[in-house]
Design brief:
Elements (H helix, E strand, L loop, with lengths): L17 E3 L1 H7 L3 E6 L11 H14 L4 E7 L3 H13 L2 E8 L12 H8 L3 E6 L4 H14 L4 E4 L6 H20 L6 E6 L3 H12 L6 E5 L4 H19 L11 E3 L12 H14 L8 H13 L8 E6 L10 H6 L8
Parallel strand pairs: 2-10, 3-4, 3-6, 4-5, 7-8, 7-10, 8-9
Antiparallel strand pairs: 1-2
Helix pairs in contact: 1-9, 2-3, 2-6, 3-4, 6-7, 6-8, 7-8, 9-10
The structure holds pyridoxal-5'-phosphate.
The site of pyridoxal-5'-phosphate has 20 residues, from helix 3, strand 7 and helix 7.
């Protein structure tokens, strides 16, 4: 199905590379581990939100907006990519940041994504943890309208049917790359937060009649809640593009065993996964999303859930700027069980 009818602003370096991870594969004893480098989408350090923002900002410009407003946690990668994309589009940008981490490193409050938001020119509004951020988004939108501006409101993570189109398109890109390598993909592993990435991939695969399972590892809430969230957004996205079929409940695979105490709260397995991938492949994961999803994948490999010949693709959704907000966590623990 052609998505050309949807307005789109070119922001993304695509196709992003699909790379084999030979040393990690050998160290873990198979399966064949591939990494899809959506941390390399461009736009101020890149990440998965850039794919969504191509359609969100396309829509904003089509509607004649002159300002973008969005919300996120203090170290939100989505907010940083949105501020950068707004700058490229010549739009103003207000970022509403929720202070929801209970016990942050000192750097969490001003380094990493927060520093980049400031550099990229966002107007920043802080809100305490537990704020209704959707209400805050609407309030700021109303204030801007009262001042004669034309704001375009982007929800948390850019996860609505418009934003999810970015990953409907990405599914096509992934299948093309696998086909170019004559590779059968066993499954795709992805961190699942505001759900647009997993939902978009599901719709994209359904549209292309592909049965490749997409395994989400939840990073912010229980498996049941996240499963319902992904399913609802996938169905809304399917309806939005006129897919003409339903997304099956059992196609939405979510596990939350590696979430730990909650969103952005570090776990020892996350720290080990970030260190292991760095030392095996020279690749940087992030502490909030990909580190926890990789911890899940590593544990599942240890449980013998894959055959050594399976080709498993880990979607690297970016987020490395967040490393600089977790300096104490990531540098304090001595690593164990790692090869010299
Ligand atoms: C936002 C984000 C995710 C989760 O994607 P969703 O579409 O919100 O589920 C994963 N990884 C990183 C680095 C992110 O910033």
């Amino acid at each position: 199905m052609n998505l050309d009818r949807f307005a789109r602003l070119a922001l993304c370096h695509a196709p992003t590379p699909l790379e084999f991870m030979p040393r990690l594969t050998r160290h873990l004893g198979g399966p064949q581990l591939w990494i899809k480098r959506d941390d390399c989408t461009g736009t101020a350090l890149g990440g998965n939100k850039t794919r969504k923002l191509e359609f969100l900002l396309g829509d904003a410009l089509q509607q004649g907006a002159d300002h973008v407003v969005t919300v996120g946690a203090l170290q939100s990668n989505h907010v940083r990519q949105t501020v950068a994309a707004a700058a490229r589009a010549g739009l103003g940008c207000t970022a509403i940041l929720e202070h929801r981490h209970p016990d942050p490193d000192a750097d969490y409050l001003r380094n990493g994504n927060v520093l980049l938001d400031v550099l990229l020119g966002a107007e920043i509004i802080y809100r305490p943890g537990g704020t209704d951020m959707f209400a805050a988004l609407r309030e700021v939108g109303d204030e801007l309208r009262a001042r004669g501006r034309k704001p375009y409101l982007i929800p948390s993570g850019g996860s609505n049917p418009v934003g999810s189109l970015g990953y409907v398109v990405a599914a096509q890109e992934i299948l093309q790359q696998a086909s170019d390598k004559s590779m059968d993909l066993h499954s795709i592993v992805v961190a699942s937060g505001s759900a647009g990435t997993q939902a978009g991939l599901l719709v994209g695969m359904a549209q292309l009649q592909s049965a490749i399972p997409i395994q989400g590892f939840a990073v912010s809430q229980t498996a049941n809640l996240q499963q319902a969230r992904v399913l609802a957004l996938a169905q809304a996205t399917a309806d939005f593009i006129g897919l003409g079929k339903d997304i099956a409940n059992d196609a939405v695979k979510v596990n939350a065993d590696y979430l730990g105490a909650g969103y952005s709260i570090p776990t020892p397995a996350m720290v080990e996964a970030v260190q292991l991938v760095a030392r095996m492949e020279g690749l940087l994961l992030d502490p909030v999303y990909t580190g926890k999803a990789m911890a899940g994948l590593i544990d599942w490999i240890g449980q013998g859930r894959y055959r050594s010949t399976d080709n498993v693709m880990f979607l690297h959704t970016g987020g490395q700027a967040g490393l600089f907000g977790f300096c104490d966590t990531l540098s304090a623990r001595p690593s164990t069980a790692l090869p010299a």
